[in-house]
Amino acid sequence: MNSAKKKTHRLDFRVSLEDKSKIARAVDFVGESMADFVLKRIMPEVDRIIAQDERIRLNNEAWTAFVGMLETPKTASSSLKKAMKEYRKTQGV
Question: I want to staple 37 with a disulfide (CB 3.0 to 4.6 A). Which of 6, 18, 32, 51 is the partner?
Fold first, then answer.
């Protein structure tokens, strides 16, 4: 976590007394503030979850099919061409 970032927003959440006591004990061991302790440990997980959601994973068969569609795209059907023409007309494009 970049500690040089200006911290201007709050994040409040409730925990049990037992969880707060355990966190406070760990915070004392490492000598950080409660906020820095939590942020330093949660942000890597946040980044991992976001990266996982943004990544597309394909098995070999799906990858081959995907590349094949890119290399040899199908031509638009007449109904698709008609829909595109109508869309452009309604949108003034």
Answer: 32
Predicted model pTM: 0.54
In which band, very low, low, confident or very high, does the pLDDT at 22 lie, cut at 50, 70 and 90? very high
Residue 83 sits in which domain range? 60-91
The answer as to whether 42 is a domain residue is: yes
Q: Which two three-digit tokens encode residue 92?
A: 């003034």
The pLDDT tens digits for 66-78 are 999 999 988 889 9
Please tell me the total count of domains within the chain: 2
